[in-house]
Amino acid sequence: MNAKVEELAAEIAVLDEAEQKVLFERAAELSFRHGLAELSERYRQRLKQEGELDRAADDILAKLRQIREEIAACEYPG
Known about the structure:
Blueprint: H1 3-13, H2 17-49, H3 57-75
């Protein structure tokens, strides 16, 4: 394993349980945020490739309304 990782692991091992819990919760939060940022960037790139990145919010909301109405009509006919 990388020496830096080993050093960090040794430092974590000497923390008390409460400190380790806080550390792991913070690490999970940071990992989650990183994942969201990465997902957001991939989605932005996809929208850019599709020429949809600069669409107006009103256009997007209108399209979502249309989709919602189509789903409602299929799922709840009559």
